[in-house]
Amino acid sequence: MALMEVKVPDIGDFDQVSVIEVLVKVGDTIKAEQSLVTVESDKASMEIPSSHAGVVRELRVALGDAVKQGSVVLVLETAQGAAAPPAAAVVPVAPLTPTGPAAPTAAMAPNASAAAIPAAAHRAAMTPPGAAPVAPAPAAPGARLPHASPSVRRLARTLGVPLNEVRGQGPKGRITPADLEAFVKRVMVGETTTAAQAARAPAASAAAGGAGLDLLPWPKVDFAKFGPVERKDLGRIKKISGANLHRNWVVIPHVTNHDDADITELEAFRLQLNREHEKSGVKVTMLAFLIKACVAALKKFPDFNASLDGEQVVLKQYFHIGFAADTPNGLVVPVIRNADQKGILAISQEMSELAKKARDGKLGPAEMTGGCFSISSLGGIGGRYFTPIINAPEVAILGVCKSSLEPRWDGTQFAPRLILPLSLSWDHRVIDGASAARFNAYLGQVLADFRRVLL
Ligand code: CAO
What we know:
This protein is an alpha+beta fold and 455 residues long.
């Protein structure tokens, strides 16, 4: 254990800057590169990260203090010996477009003049060592640039709040976390004040992550002018699931990987099981095997058994699998809890009970919540591939279509094999394409040889 001072690193052209946010407190365990304080000059705000990991033992700065390069921010107890700390780099900050948060792009090399960034009055502009400078996103002429610290900008991005619509109540009109909270509350109760806000219906979901999209209004057409029509109200389930699907489609960057699984042997086994259990009344379905196979894949690829919570990924250590059920009133997703602890027969039985309850409109909310991953099977109906919409806050969903006999080359000849089409949609904020391809490939291996679920 050793005590060390963490100091303000080279902050470029600024002689002195004010501390506008203290992001840690005495006793906090922090990681290297974690932001400690936000400082602001009359041109930019930026975060000062820690050069080391450790426990905060003493804070040497307070809100409003003026600091400069070399000022001690805090005293840290580190596990390592207190060798002279390398200067921590000031963290880069994402700019905002005039209409809302944008991807983090603007950054300039250390010591670059803040004035060199067009209209960057309130943006920090520095990269950590080694990061490539990227051109800043241009601001629209005359656009009001929101004045907010990097952590507030991050929070705004997480909440989907368009910063340029928030009135800052902090010093010099700076937007504070309390201003964001007040904005979200106003949107939640529908207290929109401007015509732009009123027109932006998706902003009603701003608190849940849906930012205003500035889309054209929905086309208003008098259909009866073109021929006879009948109008009917959307059902309750359609209204609820429609709003959820819309949010998920708009907010989550979806990608879908399509693949095939050879289920020839698995289907033969399923038919055999059904013959053996004919009298029990339990029908083993392909979906039950898929649930079990997905549990095996989720265990191997834990990023798929996760949810995004702000800037953290929550990895679940339980395996609750939802399955989409088509009912006369619309789509519902009952959940099989702890599918890892249940056998194929138990899952089949539970699925048939839940599907019946769904069709009868008797599913309780507890039977539709807590899912980790969902499966949407159109196998009983048909089709080849489709793009299932992720059931937020899950990060992936598997779609399956109807299996069919296809000729497959076995090394010496083409042989008829039963092929199941798979479509895996995944959230690109959490998962990348290589993992998705591996997930599908592994799922295919498990379905081709079900003994692999035991591994
Ligand atoms: N390939 C070929 N046949 C399949 C199959 C597949 N992938 N999956 C099921 N089948 C067969 C079954 O074996 C069964 O045949 P038999 O009656 O001859 O035994 C038949 O199709 C009907 O199966 P099922 O649909 O009743 O059973 P299931 O376990 O596959 O599905 C349930 C249950 C509740 C998921 C299903 O009834 C359902 O609602 N599916 C629709 C889901 C949906 O709408 N998804 C889209 C969401 S996006 O809008």
